[in-house]
Amino acid sequence: MRPRVVAIRLCLAAALTLGVAGCGGDDDDPGKSFVGTTLTIYSSLPLQGPHAEESQSIIAGEKLALAEVGGRVGEFTVKYASLDDSTADSKGWDARQSARNARTAAQDRTTIAYLGDFDAGATAITLPTLNEAGILQISPATTLVGLTQAEGADKGEPDKYYPTGKRTFGRVIQADNVQVGAQIQLQKQQGCKRTYVLHDSAAYGKSLTDLLTLLGPKAGLLVSGDEGIDPEADDYEAQVRELAESGADCFFLGGMDEAAATRLFTQIHTALPAVKLFAPNGLATETFAAGLPQGVAKVTFLTNPRLAARRYGLAGRRFLRSYRKAYGRDAGTYGMYGYEAMRLALHAVAEAGEDGNQKEAVIDAFFAVRNRVSPLGDYSIGEDGDTSLGGYGSYRVAGGKLVFERVIAPT
User: Fold this and answer.
1) Which part of the chain is the Leucine-binding protein domain (predicted)?
2) Cα–Cα distances in angstroms (integers) from residue 148 to residues 99, 154, 174, 305, in the given order
3) Is-contact 343 374, C-beta < 8 A?
4) Cis peptide leading into 3, omega within 30 of 0?
5) Count of CB atoms within 10 A of residue 376's CB?
6) Closest CA to 280 of 261, 255, 263, 260
């Protein structure tokens, strides 16, 4: 029997005899606590509301990755726990529910990783709690640059998310600055000289417009605007008038509220039919494309990390076939990211070896990832937790559907 196991049993016996609370590590550091040979990987996503379908594709990808290893990594059994960070009354993620999910994972001594969130606002809530608990957090969808980098971030970011001072968060999806780089190239390819930008007043959208305002001029694209809109408004006449007065020939909306974007794009096109319209991956959905009037669709262009199947390597095409065989449907934008997030968590456990049940060792293994071969492409994890993946897809809308055009490799 290993010495560590003997020590744990002695400690438990003492706890029962003396009535003490329990057994920790030498300094009761949660990052070093012994959790046995059964590990739990939590997933937290909005299973209700407008992004429920995308969340389900992420979960399907995560489950597929875990099933491929038979729920085991070396001597460890890995359990999967899916949590819903939305409520029946919320339109997507809910702040209280997100906080509750993070506490659930933090208080479970078998937790070895947390896969989430979908929305940047949710991660801003969950990350400090999980960081204090020393739990590796990998997001398959959150792109907010301020979670990992200072350039283009709000005051205090990213340090305010890491109360321990140690990085514990990373992602398999490209951060906002990569998408903005792709947007700048796409807009310049479409002949844009000046772009007027608005956001939907949420963290994700504001991050994109702030970065576009910062980086656009450096690449020769004039940018103006950068105000928030009310997604619930029925009329955007004032914003359309300001767009016209700016002299911009292009418009970008940072956000993911499909109904608001459809109303805004339609009003802009009615008043200013020559203005080209641009949107990010949060709006790169089939429902958004299908809801655009034909005239609006013709001048709408989007960026999305998902590529056409033919543009992925062997591992990517193999995943897409496996996903369809398992579930009878397409993986969507996020299925592959959910799959890789789970695979990366399992990889970190495996790389930690006999310390695969030690939170700190698993975090260190995650940040040591270099030149990893994956369905998404080959990548490394930087010291800030971001993936080195760069390629982004550009899309147009035709026949009520998203049509892939090319891969953009942002500089």
Assistant:
1) 45-384
2) 20, 11, 11, 19
3) yes
4) no
5) 25
6) 255
Residue 171 pairs in a beta bridge with 139
Find how far residue 234's CA is from the centre of its chain: 29
Model confidence at 3: pLDDT above 70: no
Give the bridge partners for 402, in sequence order: 397
Strands 250-254 and 169-171: unpaired
Residue 394 pairs in a beta bridge with 303, 406
Residue 23 to residue 33: CA distance in whole angstroms: 9
Distance of alpha carbon 176 from alpha carbon 124, whole angstroms: 15
CB burial of 13-28 (b: ≥16 within 10 Å; e: otherwise) equals eeeeeeeeeebeeeee
* Angle between helices 120-132 and 95-107 in degrees, nearest 10: 30
In angstroms, the CA 216 to CA 243 distance is 17
Amino acid 409: pLDDT: 87
CB 277 within 8 A of CB 251: yes
Domains observed in the chain: 33-174+314-367 (3.40.50.2300), 176-304+392-408 (3.40.50.2300)
Q: Alpha-carbon distance 135 to 120, whole Å? A: 18
pLDDT digits (tens, 9 = 90+) for 56-105: 999 999 999 999 999 999 999 999 999 999 999 888 899 999 999 999 99
d(CA 63, CA 338): 9
> Residue length, the chain?
411
Determine contact, residues 103/96, Cβ cutoff 8 Å. no
> Which residues have a Cβ under 8 Å from the Cβ of 168 and sit 6 or more positions away?
127, 130, 131, 134, 135, 136, 137, 162, 363
Please give the single-letter amino acid code of residue 287: T
* Helix, strand or coil, per DSSP, at residue 351: helix
